[in-house]
Design a protein that fits this description.
Layout lengths: L3 H17 L4 H20 L5 E2 L1 H10 L9 E6 L3 H6 L1 H4 L6 E5 L2 E6 L2 E8 L23 E5 L2 E5 L3 H8 L6 E4 L8 E4 L2 H4 L7
Parallel strand pairs: 2-5
Antiparallel strand pairs: 1-2, 3-4, 4-5, 6-7, 8-9
Amino acid sequence: MFPTGLNKRINKYSFIMDHLKVLSQNEVNELYELFGYLVSMLNKYAIPYACAGGTLLGAIRSKGLIQWDDDVDITIERIHIPTIMHLKYIFTDGNKYEIIKAGKYMKLRYNNVFIDIFIIDNGIYPQKRWAEYNFKEGEYYPLQEAMFGDIKVKVPHLYTQYLNRTFPEWFNVAHVYNHKTKGKQKMSLTPQLLEPYLPAV
């Protein structure tokens, strides 16, 4: 048996992690399935992309989905979007998945989980309010590889420099946010919080 104090800490961390999670295990399984399929199609048709936002943080910091995240974010240069739309039937796996246009970006949906596909122009987001997340010269290309669970994914070339600039304290502090709870919480990262939310084997 664990000492009483250790038991309390373990129960505290378990409560925090369970409280932060907004996706069920089944939804996590579906999100990884969807992401794996999208990555395989992007690779097959030589369409460059990179993990963005919380997905970039997850790939570099946790090697998978951040426990409190609820979607996947990637960026694709606008020049490649017509190819995706031309091959829409293939990218949706015969309509198993659904591509939705959402203003200046797109979503790939599978049941209740989404991948946000953000469109950029030479590393620049068209949304003015996201100017702080634009890529500086040399930060985006050539793309590097990282692991997201068991999926080999692409990340920006100078991802450490980019994260230091856009997400200060990213390796020590978690800014907990998702689309369901909306409100942000700032928490010190612990080994338990760094663990990825992985699909069930």
